[in-house]
């Protein structure tokens, strides 16, 4: 399947980049596939995490901003970007960064204004399970969250025993 990003354009305003959809999409529709030619073991601001130690350079998709109420999902299992709800032509696209990122290189404060805003965007490992449960999560994030919970339980057990 081709990456097909012809329907996406990058808008730059005061050095702030946004990704715009040049056409409308229906909820659940595939918008494009995610590039996977260039895989690294460390994250940077042009990558999306696709597995525990794998970060893929996403090209144009690096202009996707974070939102706590996003309109697209990045499915790192199928390597697809999918509409989370109906999207209008010329609408800015955004996704929930902790749905792919475990621990981000450059955390920031979110000002998206959504009622469920998480405020500090630093990666999934810094969010409570109750928050993550309300979002689409990729398998590698689920796995690492389960592992973190197990380690915490073992740690607490050790503390009680000592
Ligand atoms: Zn937010």
Provide an overview of this structure.
The chain is α+β, with helices and mostly antiparallel strands. The protein is built from 2 helices and 12 strands; from the N terminus they run ββββββββββββαα. The protein has helices at residues 129-132, 139-161, and strands at 8-13, 16-21, 30-33, 39-40, 47-51, 54-57, 65-66, 72-75, 80-83, 92-95, 108-109, 120-121. The strands form 4 sheets. A 4-stranded mixed sheet has the order 1-2-10-7, with no helix packed on it. A 3-stranded antiparallel sheet has the order 3-9-8, with no helix packed on it. Strand 1 (8-13) and strand 2 (16-21) form a beta hairpin. It is globular, with a radius of gyration of 17 Å. The N and C termini lie far apart (56 Å). Zinc ion is lined by residues 68, 110, 112, 114, 117-118.
Counting H and I runs of at least 4 residues, what is the number of helices? 2
State the shape. Answer: globular
Give the terminus-to-terminus CA distance.
Answer: 56 Å
The overall average pLDDT, rounded, is 94
Helicity level: 10-25%
Tell me the Rg in angstroms. 17 Å
**What compounds are bound to the protein?**
zinc ion
How much strand content do the residues show? 25-35%
Major sheet details: 4 strands, mixed
């Amino acid at each position: 399947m081709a990456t097909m990003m012809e329907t996406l354009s990058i808008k730059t305003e005061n050095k702030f980049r946004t990704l715009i959809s040049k056409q409308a999409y229906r909820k659940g529709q595939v918008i494009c596939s995610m590039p996977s030619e260039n895989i690294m073991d460390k994250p940077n601001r042009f990558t999306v995490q696709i597995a525990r130690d794998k970060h893929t350079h996403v090209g144009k998709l690096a202009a996707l901003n974070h939102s706590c109420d996003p309109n697209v999902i990045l499915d790192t299992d199928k390597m697809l970007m999918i509409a989370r709800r109906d999207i209008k032509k010329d609408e800015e696209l955004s996704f929930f960064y902790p749905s792919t990122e475990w621990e981000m290189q450059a955390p920031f404060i979110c000002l998206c204004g959504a009622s469920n805003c998480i405020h500090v965007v630093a990666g999934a490992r810094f969010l409570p399970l109750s928050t993550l449960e309300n979002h689409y999560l990729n398998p590698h994030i689920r796995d690492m969250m389960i592992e973190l919970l197990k380690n915490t339980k073992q740690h607490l057990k050790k503390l009680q025993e000592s």
